[in-house]
Amino acid sequence: MNMTEPLAAKPGALTPEVLKIDLAGEADRIGRWMVDTLVNKLHKRGVVVAMSGGIDSSCCAALAVHALGPKKVFGLLLPERDSSSFSSHRGRMLAEHLGIEYEVNDIAPALEGLGCYARRDEAIRRVFPQYGEGWKNKIVIAGGTERGINFFKLVVQSPQGEMFDKRLPLKDYLQIVAATNFKQRVRKTMEYYHADRLNYAVIGTPNRLEYDQGFFVKNGDGAADLKPIAHLYKTQVYAMVRHLGAPDEVCNAVPTTDTYTLAQGQDEFYFALPHAQMDLALWAYNHGRPAAELATALGIAEDHARLVYADIEAKRRTTHYLHARPELVEPIAEIHA
Asked: Which of 3.40.50.620, 3.40.50.150, 3.30.565.10, 3.40.30.10 would CATH assign to domain 19-128+180-258?
């Protein structure tokens, strides 16, 4: 039996109950898979986990300790200039709770050297020329569930607290995202440094929503040797972290991107709905449930539910590249990936 299949949902009922799983059985199944993967496929001694203080990396770290014990798990805290102080606090808290060795590396100097902040701010100033010292920023998504195509808006806040927003031209959107993607890619560089140093494997932390919908950076947080929760919906990740005994402050962490200087929820940046509703929508779509049934379950209009389904499919199409392996002129028969 696949432990991620629903446990107690009534046949035909589309409720949050469909997302309930056998947490103890699933933790053990993931643990067995992790040990087998390390020993028989990757030939590595342990794992490196970048711990952002968020629920996904916390779940991966806790599952790794459950599978391997604390001595074979190395944690990394990789803050930068725009990181929330709560992220490092929760990361330290969990590392110490799990009893694993960990290290804190501030990646801001590396990002400064690469021009991450300067390139981002250059694009922001093309939209808001007054943007400067003391201002804050974030990007929000719009349009995709409002009978239109997805587009992005730039939101900035002045040092006096005034908020401004404008639709982002494509050129400026791409430059801001490209610049901020340095953050994920520099973090991954540090993860692989420590993995090489220890002969460990790198754990990737995307949950099912993120993996399915392409909410990761190619060769950044998308790069990893094993991804233990890519099959778990976000709701299931929260339940698993609690089951594994993480501190309440970690279990109750609100999903954020922790990338921009203004507070930013994942739903306002990328997903069509808050994570609990998005989980149910993706589960319903994956199981062929009609939009009318989703509408009833979420208390939204049927047209809105159809647009959510359309947005799921659109994101799969547009982010397919993120999952793709490098293209070759012809297969290399002697190499079996």
From this structure: 3.40.50.620
